[in-house]
Amino acid sequence: MLPKGVTFSERFNGINGSAIRAIFKVLNKPNMISFAGGNPSNDALPNDVCAELAREALLSDGKRILQYGATEGYPPFLESLLAHLRSQFAFPVEPANLLPLSGSTQGIDLLCKTLTNPGDTILVESPTFLGNMQTLRVYQQKLVPVPSDENGVLLDALEALVQQTHPKMLYIIPTFQNPTGRTLAADRREPIAKMAEKYGFLVVEDDPYRDLRYAGQALPPIKTYDHSGHVVYMGSFSKVISPGMRVGYMVAHEEIVQKCAIGKQGSDLHTATLTQAIVDLYLRRNLLAPHIQAILPGYRDKLNAMLAALETFPAGTQYTRPEGGLFIFVTLPESLNAGELFQKAVERGVAFVPGTSFFPDGGHENTLRLNFSNSTLEQIHTGMTILRELFTI
Amino acid sequence: MLPKGVTFSERFNGINGSAIRAIFKVLNKPNMISFAGGNPSNDALPNDVCAELAREALLSDGKRILQYGATEGYPPFLESLLAHLRSQFAFPVEPANLLPLSGSTQGIDLLCKTLTNPGDTILVESPTFLGNMQTLRVYQQKLVPVPSDENGVLLDALEALVQQTHPKMLYIIPTFQNPTGRTLAADRREPIAKMAEKYGFLVVEDDPYRDLRYAGQALPPIKTYDHSGHVVYMGSFSKVISPGMRVGYMVAHEEIVQKCAIGKQGSDLHTATLTQAIVDLYLRRNLLAPHIQAILPGYRDKLNAMLAALETFPAGTQYTRPEGGLFIFVTLPESLNAGELFQKAVERGVAFVPGTSFFPDGGHENTLRLNFSNSTLEQIHTGMTILRELFTI
Questions:
Q1: Fold of domain B10-46+289-390
Q2: Which H or E element spans position B104?
Q3: Which candidate, B309, B313, B337, places its Cα nearest to that of B33?
Q4: Is B113 in Cβ contact with A138 (below 8 Å)?
Q5: A266 vs B16: CB contact, 8 Å cut-off?
Q6: At B124, is the secondary structure helix, strand, or coil?
Q7: How many whole angstroms separate alpha carbon A265 and alpha carbon B369?
């Protein structure tokens, strides 16, 4: 019971925490095979390298690293991040367009804080990442799902919704989307940037998975086609170096960056400088590209193993076939309920995330998200065998 | 100019960033003597020790440190923090009462997010820490100053304001307050906890400076007298280990902690695990107490040097005489304007913070805040000589 006279804010009405993070707490059972998280493989986390980089950074620039830093970021990191972005992308980036984030998650919070009022409309993919949906809901945004197919959001439907709802933003994960793993088609990217300019809304392009590509060719970010400042690009080192370090960034119009920096002053003042310094050395020493090349084959094998297992599932089971990322999205025959199956699966030592939580309007009880990156091939084989049995009507 | 159709949120009307952080940008002039920040001395930042601890943590528990962590904190850190708090304080702390924060700054943001609605009243000391005032304003809180004397807020005035305004919270820095350096008297602490229980408001006790005591006896936190869950205690390792690591914590009623953890999911998901791990080892190896003992004499000398210089200032200059912390607050004769003097001082190579920004209602143009911790004794001597000349009418 809350202390006398204390009440929670209206913005937290109905907010009960991310379903995924609640599921994590169920997973402490030993030997649980978890397809539930969005975690990189432990094998892919370069802790020995980071140990040496952390030590080196603290010995060589330790006073600056341990002292208060600028909200706008640790200068060496800004420098190497800028060089990295310029080598990766065709869109222009100046220092004034960059803001380091404590994970790209923080970007959504800051954009909501600085740009939205309660009751504004945000267009989202359906399904989409539930953690960020929760943040949008805390800011009392009206979430409107945009219809999509296997190549991402449908442009005609998007434009109709824009005309109808006058949204503040479109929140979109264009590459290896969470939870579906699907990628927005190349020929839908420029039109979305143009639409944002024409109608005056922001595109928040959340792109943490793009480097985890196991097949096919990389596509330019939507931001590439932005000539008016309507696209905010968010990247992260969580999936390719370490999520525990909480280092991401935003590339945006200068005034948006300035306002988000003011919001960040009150959020965490600045991202921990030590983790910025480790990522700086990682980039500066050109360790990132070889590290990614080293981890891709293992992830590719796991994805393929899970897809091969799904091929043997009963007729009527549909699933996405991603070219990268961490997730496969499964649609079971309509008579099956993934929430009920989740309980049974956990009893048998396998976990996943029921899909309903990823849909802005709920429903879709016959869907689920599978993560393959954080299991061994053997666990994938064993776990998928159990799920196949459970999913057989 | 903002992109077409994009507007900032109403909550950011009139929010222009912390005056202190703006001042920081002026300080890049070489040889500037800065009494402006709230920075620990670089000498007090244990970067060599942290270099070894960081390396060791990443070699021994690196997979867990680099992987996603729980919003509720890195388990070894929670364990050593709990032991630390139990050894320091008489109030009971259970794991469910603890939430690690990315600096105690984040605590204000999370408490506002989860507990306040726009238009709520927050009682604050006058003057008080301007960074947190900005956060309260972003959450559209009505700030009401509580009259105080050299021993902190006046109880009768506080109770009258509570009856009159029905506040949601009292935000208070009871020990070596920012910006005044003054400490809430021992006999005012229990009555504040009792008042919170009686009237049903929260006391947010922000206590980052308490370990920096150069004279006198430590006083129990207000939280010591809390038997109803109305006091939220916030501590930080920023002033005694490193602000750049961004590690603080909240001790609060279990349900408040749970709700703040949900808010933190959308803020930064969790505090960087590596910095939690470094603080964990710092506490676990009993390095904190000797480190504090080692840094206190230097800080004491600096405080005394600044106070000695102030004794030679023209008659009519008043100032606080803190027993600890980082700041002295100066009140000049009414005819002087600290904002104008700031410009002249910066031209002569000395910086401070004009006091007006610390007052919820502005005014007090003849006041200023001086920081002594981040200057050498020689810089204090030189800088104070310049200020004495400037402050002479």
A1: Aspartate Aminotransferase, domain 1 (3.90.1150)
A2: none
A3: B309
A4: yes
A5: no
A6: strand
A7: 20
pLDDT tens digit string along B83-128? Answer: 999 999 999 999 999 999 999 999 999 999 999 999 999 999 999 9
**Closest C-alpha among A310, A367, A311 to residue A339:** A367
Tell me the C-alpha distance between A17 and B213, whole Å.
Answer: 40
For chain A, give the percent of residues with pLDDT over 70: 98
Q: Would the ipTM clear 0.95, i.e. be above it?
A: yes
- Whether B117 sits inside 8 A of A10 (CB atoms) is yes
**Other C-beta atoms within 10 Å of B284: how many?**
16
Q: Is A21 on the interface with B (CB under 8 A)?
A: yes
Alpha-carbon span B182 to B166, nearest angstrom: 26
Peptide bond into B360 cis (omega under 30): no
> What is the pLDDT at residue B122?
98
Question: A129 to chain B: which residues are within 8 Å by CB?
Answer: none
pLDDT value of position A393 = 78
Q: Which two tokens stand for residue B183?
A: 């400490």
Whether A259 has its CB under 8 Å from any CB of chain B: the answer is: yes
Residue B236: strand pairing partners: B248
Rounded to whole angstroms, how far apart are CA atoms A163 and A159? Answer: 6
Give the closest of B114, B132, B275 to A12, CB-based: B114
Average pLDDT for A281-293 = 98
Q: Are A249 and A72 in contact (CB under 8 A)?
A: no
Of B129, B203, B131, nearest in space to B162 by CA: B203
**Within this chain, domains B10-46+289-390 and B47-284 share the same CATH topology:** no
pLDDT over 70 at B20, yes or no: no
Q: How far apart are CA B279 and CA B335, in angstroms?
A: 47
Parallel/antiparallel/unpaired status of strands B327-331 and A350-351: unpaired
For residue A262, pLDDT beyond 90: yes
What's the pLDDT score for residue A22?
A: 67
Please name which of B273, B251, B175 lies closest in space to residue B219, comparing C-alpha atoms. Answer: B175
Residue B76, both tokens: 């070894």
DSSP characters over A221-259: -GGGG-SSS-EEEEEESTTTT-STT--EEEE--HHHHHH
| Distance in Å from the first CA to the final CA of chain B | 44
- When pLDDT is averaged across residues A43-64 and rounded to a whole number, the result is 98
What is the predicted pLDDT for the residue at B18? 67
Domain spans, chain B: 10-46+289-390, 47-284
Residues whose CB is less than 8 angstroms from the CB of residue A139 and which lie 6 or more positions away in sequence, other chains included: A11, A112, A113, A116, A118
Helix (H, G, I), strand (E, B) or coil at A324: strand
The answer to whether the CB of B129 falls within 8 A of the CB of B358 is yes
Pairs across A and B, CB distance < 8 A: 304
d(CA B185, CA B172): 13
Res A27 pLDDT > 90:
no
Burial string for A192-205 (b: 16+ CB within 10 Å, else e) reads bbebbbeebbbbbb
Pick the CATH number of B47-284 from 3.40.640.10, 3.50.50.60, 3.30.700.30, 3.40.50.1390: 3.40.640.10
CB contact under 8 A, B54 and A59: no
What is the least distance, in Å, from the CA of A70 to any CA of chain B? 8
Reply yes or no on whether the pLDDT at A21 is more than 70: no
B13 touches chain A (CB under 8 A): no
Q: Using alpha carbons only, what angle is made at residue A101 by residues A98 and A102, rounded to the nearest 5 degrees? A: 165
Q: In A364-390, which positions are buried (b, 16+ CB within 10 angstroms) versus exposed (e)?
A: bbbbbbbbbbbbeeebbebbbeebeeb
- Smallest Cβ–Cβ distance between A274 and the set B48, B266, B275 belongs to B275
Q: Report pLDDT for B383.
A: 98
pLDDT in tens, B340-373: 999 999 999 999 999 999 999 999 999 999 999 9
DSSP-based three-state secondary structure for B211 = coil
CB contact under 8 A, B48 and A68: no
